[in-house]
Amino acid sequence: MSATARRRFLVGGAAAVGAAAVGPMTGSVRAATRPLPPDLFTLGVASGDPLPDGVVLWTRLAPDPLAGGGMPDRAVDVEWQVAEDAAFRRIVKRGTATAEPAYGHSVHVDVRGLRAHRDHWYRFRAGGELSPTGRTRTAPHPLAAGGRLRLALASCQNWQHGYFNAYADMAEQDVDAVLFVGDYIYESGPSSTAVRPHEGTGEPYSLAQYRNRYAQYRSDPDLARMHASAPWIVTFDDHEVDNDYAGGIPQDPDKQSPAAFALRLAAAYQAYYEHMPVRATAVPDGAHIRVHRRLDFGRLARLQVLDTRQYRSDQATSEEGARSPWTTMLGAEQKEWLIDGLRRSPARWNLIGSQIMMAETDLLPGAGKRWYYDAWDGYQAERDELLGVLDEVANPVVLTGDRHLTMVADLKRDFADPSSRVVGAEFVGCSISSNGDQDEAAFRAEWDPRLPDNPHWKLLDPRRGYHLFDIDRDGVDARLRVVDTVLRPAATARTGARLRVENGRPGVELV
Known about the structure:
- The chain has 511 residues and is α+β, with helices and mostly antiparallel strands.
- The longest helix has 18 residues, at 258-275.
- The strands form four sheets. A seven-stranded mixed sheet has the order 11-10-9-19-20-21-22.
- The radius of gyration is 22 Å and the shape is globular.
- It has helices spanning 3-14, 166-170, 207-218, 221-227, 258-275, 319-322, 332-343, 380-390, 440-447, and strands spanning 45-51, 54-60, 76-83, 91-99, 106-111, 119-126, 129-130, 134-137, 149-154, 177-180, 232-234, 293-297, 301-305, 349-354, 396-400, 406-412, 422-428, 457-461, 465-471, 475-483, 493-502, 505-510.
């Protein structure tokens, strides 16, 4: 990112001022050389990464979203406002940000100076058009020790497998934040048998193709509503780029050269940044983007969001390789960052957002082991080191995606020793739509025989939905919220299971 582009990116935060006057938004301060196309805000609005005094506000100008966006090749000034009421009578911050063509005319405003732990409403204006209104919420004061945090955990939303109707239920839950741990889009080509086919003619490789894929996903009305209802904390897994990729290694290195895959990574990461409510620290540098970060919710909870794709060694292909001390999931720098954040945490609850499952999954009934090498089972030396750290810190809870099913488990100090003590809990999210409506009888026939070999598993469930957590100083109350189908736009949601983690008692129990 050039210095000029970065200055333009930051102008939204720098121009934020307390509003002394109340009234409608004024016209754009940049004189337009020609009128902008209509329908600029087709992709809605979003907010993310809440701090005690601020939040990131996002939109992207895209009048023709599935054809590259449809904007003229010039920068556009976009006004923004933040208010403490939905009618915008108490405007507390306002300013102007620049939507650059180099970044798909996306807007990321890092607003600061807001009051802690309060709802705020925001909106944008460009070309005489007003965006939809979004609601966001700042984090508690850094020294706040009590209260409650309501967090939703979501992942894995495959457009072709069904509708994202679980978000309609989530939008009714008044969450403080949404933690999305990966597979926001899927890179597969369109299928004639899909519930709703992907756009395009094949997998995305170029920036324009990834932009179109994100725009299609953003057009889901329930997803758009949820983005406008609460701040999101996001990270990516593999399908935002290429299935099961590891660092700079694609799934099919015989078909994608290192140079070609580096170009694909750069395109995918830029499109990800352009469509996510993240700060300037996530502006990509070619084939690299920084997404690991930590957020504190007073002294109640610390959330550390991981990146388990960019720094990992290639996946193992054998049990011996999975146990190798030379493989890494996080890379040295990120691993030390995580350990330091855990050991120095002042929080009652230490939450980790991990794209892939940390607890063991033994797929082989009876004697022997068979693991998913793409998950933490394929990086056991580093996992064992982290489990040792979790054994030292207060109330660790890992929040995970990837599996397309609900797997709630105890984290053991040593999964090779059945008598090893429990050091934490893990909630693996089901999926918003990926795998569609599964046959429960077939699921039970496949997974129930594995239960005796995985006594740390507390819940297995094949239904689509998300996890909802109510966290206070005494415990974590978790609800699995499931929908009856993803094959139709509307669905009925209900609580499929309730679980609890008690303060000072590692592990999780059904209630």
